[in-house]
TrEMBL record:
Keywords: Oxidoreductase. It is an enzyme of class 1 (oxidoreductase). It comes from the Bacteria. This is 4-hydroxythreonine-4-phosphate dehydrogenase 1. It comes from Chromobacterium violaceum. One of its GO terms (molecular function) is 4-hydroxythreonine-4-phosphate dehydrogenase activity. Its EC number is 1.1.1.262.
């Protein structure tokens, strides 16, 4: 049996900021840990496509880790419709606290 990988769970921060971009790079920066993003899955997929990143997103399941190299996502939907990166919207700011409570 393979040893359990330690879990690194991180919120994506402000949806219009750089946080989602940084979270998407976790699997390449820390391949030895189980990387979990607490964020809106569609937001991460859109940002990965915009940045040209080939990131495997997997649904987070506590009892079933995704393969090494994948970014697991604990999906918490955005409170407001998504806007492009850098487009500040007050309703989107409610995501950071909601993601933290997860």
């Amino acid at each position: 049996m393979m040893p359990k990988r330690p879990v690194l769970a991180v919120t994506a921060g402000e949806p219009a900021g750089i946080g989602p971009d940084l979270v998407l790079r976790l699997p390449e920066l820390a391949p030895e840990v189980r990387c979990v993003a607490i964020a809106d899955r569609a937001l991460l997929a859109d940002r990965a496509a915009a940045l040209g990143l080939d990131v495997r997103l997997a649904d987070y399941r506590r009892d079933r880790p995704a393969p090494a190299g994948a970014l697991e996502v604990l999906h918490v939907p955005l409170a407001a419709r998504r806007k492009p990166a850098g487009w500040i919207r007050p309703m989107a700011a409610t995501c950071s606290p909601r993601w933290t409570r997860r």
